[in-house]
């Protein structure tokens, strides 16, 4: 599933695997709704399991936060590997998915240990999986030659960290930035 050395280890038994996956899905939703300090009891309740089951799979809140984060990164990396099409369209589609990922991650941003091996491995995995889309678009002349992939990641993260009146305004600002990636017309 994942090409990086940090991966979710799901239980082997079917019932335990269902509980594990239900907990991750519930945690993703609850953290997005309430933030990283959401009560773990709410997560267990939404997953239809007891709090003991949650702690059996995720002994600490940080374990659960990291598991949700790793799961989202795995999905983002898989999407990057599966996107096809014209170079610019493929890159823009990935950037939309990256934007959704960053927007979801903002609720957990403060709780994640950005110095952890997990965080660094996840960032490296995102770059490894998605940089080829950027490079292909740049080689096709759809992205300016003086822009690096790191520039795009930082620009996008900065745009998404701002507060907006609406999601439409955020999307408009992102489209303006994307237009700035295109080479000037001769």
Question: What distinguishing features does this structure have?
Answer:
186 residues; mainly alpha; Arc Repressor Mutant, subunit A; Tetracycline Repressor, domain 2; elongated
What does this structure look like?
It is a single chain. 68% of the residues lie in helices and 0% in strands. By secondary structure, it is an all-alpha fold. It has two domains: 11-59, Orthogonal Bundle (Arc Repressor Mutant, subunit A), CATH 1.10.10; 62-181, Orthogonal Bundle (Tetracycline Repressor, domain 2). Helix 4 (61-82) runs antiparallel to helix 5 and helix 5 (87-105) packs antiparallel against helix 6. The protein is elongated.
